[in-house]
Every structure is written in C-alpha cells, then in structure tokens.
Amino acid sequence: MSSKNVMSRLLVLSSVGFGGYLTGTYLERKKVTIAGDYVNSARSHESFCSKPGLPIFGTVSAATPIPADSPSSAVVNVSRVGQIMKYGFPGLDNVRSFDDYVLSYDRRTRVAHWVFEHLTPQTIKHNDAVDRAKCDFKPDESIHPFFRSLNSDYKGSGFDRGHLAAAGNHRQEQKHCDQTFFLTNMAPQVGVGFNRDKWNDLERYVRKLTKQYPNVYCCTGPLYLPRREDDGKLYVKYQVIGSNNVAVPTHFYKIIVMETSDGKLEMESFVLPNQKIDNETPLTMFQVPPETVERAAGLLFFDKLARNKLAKINGKKV
Amino acid sequence: MSSKNVMSRLLVLSSVGFGGYLTGTYLERKKVTIAGDYVNSARSHESFCSKPGLPIFGTVSAATPIPADSPSSAVVNVSRVGQIMKYGFPGLDNVRSFDDYVLSYDRRTRVAHWVFEHLTPQTIKHNDAVDRAKCDFKPDESIHPFFRSLNSDYKGSGFDRGHLAAAGNHRQEQKHCDQTFFLTNMAPQVGVGFNRDKWNDLERYVRKLTKQYPNVYCCTGPLYLPRREDDGKLYVKYQVIGSNNVAVPTHFYKIIVMETSDGKLEMESFVLPNQKIDNETPLTMFQVPPETVERAAGLLFFDKLARNKLAKINGKKV
C-alpha cells in the first residue's frame, strides 16, 4: 500500500466519519438539554476521594488501593501491569492501572487517551462464574469531579457507552469484568452499525488472534481527526455530550502486537470511523500504518519494539 | 457576578470566537496547501535528538542539558523551577523546564497545555544587553518529530506564532529571551486585533502587576471551547495548520496569582477568544471564574492554594 493510497483512505475515513454524526443521530430519541455548563457545578473538592495509594506524581494511579492485610497483592498487581505494558507506555498522562488492563485518561476530553490489554488463550477463556450482567457502568471516583464523566452525560445523547478495553477480554474473575465498566474505560460510540456491529467484530477478531498467538497486546483509543471543509482548510470537529462535555471521538484505533510461539512479533493497526459501517466491509479495509495513528493521537505505540524488526505489519512482511 | 451571567458571557465569547476564524482569515494571503499529511513523513527517529538529561519517565525534561563543567547551574535551575512552580503543577503531561519558565506540551495538538512564569520587579527589568531582535523562532528538538511544530506549519497560515510565555517577561539574560522563541512556546494566534493588540495588552497588564505585587505567578494556555450549532448540539471545532496539523486554539487563558508584600494572595483569571477584539473592550470583560478554565482545560491551577483562602478573585473579596 503506497503512502498516497493510505493518505486517500484516511481522508475518506475522515470524511465519512463526519457523515457518521448525521447517520448516528437517528438513534437519538431525546435532545441533550443540559450541556456546556462548566460553571454551575461548584468546585466540590469534597466529593473527590483521593484514595491512599492512588496518585503518584498526581497523575499515575493504581485502580485499587492495596489492602494492608494482603501484602502479596501488590506484587501480583505490579507484575501483571509489567506484563500488560511489556512493550512500553504510549504516553504517561494520568495513567491508571486496573487488575487486568491499564489506561491513560484525558482530562480535557473526559475520554481515555489509550487503554492497554494483554490477551492470552487463558485470560479470555470463558468462566461460568463471571457474569457480565452483574456489571454496572460506574463513574471513576479516582478522577477529579471536574473531569469525571457520568452516566447522566450519556443518557439521551444517542451514543452508547462503548468499552475501550472490551468486557469480553476480561472474564477470568468477576472483578476483572467489573473493572471494565468504569466510565474511564468508556467512550461515546455510535451504537447500531458500530459499537454493536463492526467494532464488536474487531474486538472478536482480536480475541480470536489468541488461537494462533500465545500473547496478544492490544492498545485501543479515540481519535479526533481533521477534515477538509469547503473553505479548503482543515478542521477538527467533534460533538461533546452531557453536562461534563464528554467528547465524541470521530474515530477509534486499535494497535495490536502478536507474539508467535517462536518469539516473532507481528503488528496490526486499525482506524474505524465512529459511525454506522456496512457489515460487508472487511476489517482489512480499516488497516492503516501505525505511524498514521501515532501522529494523530500524539502517542508512540510499542516504542520498545524497533518497527523494522517486526516480522509483519498489517499482514505484510516488513 | 452570578453563575448564570458568567455562563452567558462564556457562551458569547465562545460564539464570537468562531466568528474570529472568519475575521482572522483576512490576514491570510496564501492558502495552506500542505496539510493533513500524517503519512508521508517517515518515522524518522534519526532526527529525534534524545539529549542527555532530557527525559525523566519519558515525559518530563529539562530544556538544557546541564554542562559537566558547571555543577552549580543544576542547583540554580532546580531552585528556579521550584520558585516558578511554587503553587503546584496544573498537569504533568510532557513537562519541560526552561531557565525562566516551565511548560507542558500537548503532543496531539502540537500546542502547549500550559506555560508557567514567575515575575518579579527584577525579572522583568529592562536589560540593554538583551535584544529580542537576536531571537529566532526555532523548532524544539526535544519533542519527537511526529509531534513537533515547525516554522513551515505557520507559514502562509494567516496566523501569528504567538508567545505563551511572553518574550517581554524574560529579559534578564539573552538566554532567557531566546528560550521563549522555541515553537513549543508558540500557538497560532490571530495577529492584528489579538496577538499584536488585546492579548499584548493583557501581557503588559501582567507585567505591570509587579509594580504593586513583589511576586506574580502566571499560567497561560490554549482552550478548545465547545459551541452550540444550529442542530442544538455542542461541538468543539478548531482549525489545524501546516503539515503537522498544529491546532488553532479557539481561546486562550491566563490565570494569575499575586502575592502582596504582607503575604496575602489574590487571583485573576482571563479567557480571550482567538480573534480580533475591539480595542475599547476592557480586560475585565474577559474575567471568568478560574473553575471555568479548569473544567475546559482539564487542568487544576494553583492547586496548592485553597481557593477560599485567597484574599480576592478577579478583584472581588472571596
């Protein structure tokens, strides 16, 4: 795929993505009436619970305070974070580590910069004791209330609370599944035709990779891509929803690294517009060079890996 | 000023700000022709100079590597950063410390999140040996090339390279003045009527505060404010310029804390739309509650100060 083709494809994705706002709104049954009010909510430091063990430098936190009576859990948790983040952090803004995934939160958009997962045949194995229906979407109280998204922000917006770390990737323990329901792990996604369809296909595709590869590393996040308007200039434009002005990303990315059983590494990189996508469109249509995503997201993915040492990128030999 | 009034004022600022894009373009003599090309620039790690002493955790850096032959400069520099940042860091993403100001860089927009300065009657005193004309706008090579803004991004865009830390605040040494010309300290600003006029008035106002207050702390940065469109929904929309897609902020803020000689603290907080502003409009028209800026920017300003312990906010007793 030449650079020019890639560029054209991205511009097409970008343009179509904005049409997506229109197609997405047919889902909207109720107008957002509370919006844009930065002012009326008081500076309620009282409701911000700065949990012990949470802030490191104010921006790096652990999801769960380590209980004093279980010293071993610290070791377990740290080593799991080390496994998940084996190939580097894409960025270090407001990092939050959960038991089975790691997240970086963007306080301006109220949507994560990135969410990092490590999948193996074991971690995605179905466990009958884990019930997704028991999980509730819940605000993340480790985030200052000024920057915290709430269920009320999504209500009536027409957008789904779309998982970045998929619930289906974390079913070894109920706690792991529960933790994917923090609103820090959600982004406003078009429901029918995207979150419930093509995006879900991509999530299932990533899980299926564990049949072939013993280790799969997956980084997921939002993009806010520019689009050329009639005046010939490029603009970034995205909707914000709810009283906390949660950003509706124009696109979402997934960058995946697969380890083969003989230690080779392959990478795949996808960008999907946040809109209804035809079911017939193959996922490979959404493959883009990882550099494209890095430039747009302001992040460096898998930076501990020299890209020219990878065996394959997007199915092609490097 | 009631919350409602503040809100109305902010919405007005926001609306007007978008008109500003139109009024701003009369300055534009040449269309931006290179744009949106995330792809064609190669992943040129070679041109990224990771200087010794620069990255701490990959995102916190010192502007100048400390020369081995001057061990005292480390002490001086660290203590100056401590002075400047006395009342807390607004955020910790990609922090970069220069000799006389501190900056946090947003790799996605290619514009700083915030720039922090400490002004005293001494630091702003005119020094005949310091010549602004000797300073050149220069790319900041401590930033990875994927996220670095260049002079070519601004060329022909119709926007000024607007200083966030004002050059006029740093004239004790030529080096201090020089360092304000790194492009990490620049944002695309409307020239006539804004950067060269009302924004400049605000900068001069901040300097003048040192006549009354022995210590003045000033935090400056961009905002990307949402605006309600005809469909009743709120959208964030901003132009991006050049091949690196440098964001054109819709607004800029300044949050200032002044120490009185008897140790009292006062705060002022301004938001100006990035557009031509009538010369007659008094600066006080642009005062907003600091919380408003915090929510919009995703930052907490002067968080070591309890806001209810301040003597005054925006000229009014707290």
From TrEMBL, chains A, B:
**GO CC annotation, single:** nucleus
Alphabetized InterPro entries for the sequence = DNA/RNA_endonuclease_AS, DNA/RNA_non-sp_Endonuclease_sf, Endo_G_ENPP1-like_dom, ENPP1-3/EXOG-like_nuc-like, His-Me_finger_sf, Non-specific_endonuclease
Top-level taxon of origin: Eukaryota
What top-tier enzyme class does this entry carry?
A: hydrolase
Q: SMART domains, from UniProt?
A: Endonuclease_NS, NUC
Q: Which family does it belong to?
A: Belongs to the DNA/RNA non-specific endonuclease family.
A Gene Ontology biological process in which this protein takes part is: apoptotic DNA fragmentation
PANTHER family in the cross-refs: ENDONUCLEASE G, MITOCHONDRIAL, ENDONUCLEASE RELATED
Instruction: List each copy of the ENPP1-3/EXOG-like endonuclease/phosphodiesterase domain by range.
Output: 98-308
Catalytic residues as annotated in Swiss-Prot or TrEMBL: H163
Which locations, inside or outside the cell, does it occupy?
Mitochondrion
Q: Which Pfam family, any one, appears in the UniProt record?
A: Endonuclease_NS
The cofactors it requires, by name, are: Mg(2+)
- Protein name per its UniProtKB record: Endonuclease
Q: Which GO MF terms are attached to this record?
A: metal ion binding; nucleic acid binding; RNA endonuclease activity; single-stranded DNA endodeoxyribonuclease activity
**Chief subcellular location:** mitochondrion
Please state every residue range assigned to the domain named DNA/RNA non-specific endonuclease/pyrophosphatase/phosphodiesterase: 97-308
- Residues at which Mg(2+) binds: N195
- EC number from the UniProt entry: 3.1.30.-
Could you list this entry's UniProt keywords, alphabetically sorted.
Disulfide bond, Endonuclease, Hydrolase, Magnesium, Metal-binding, Mitochondrion, Nuclease, Transit peptide
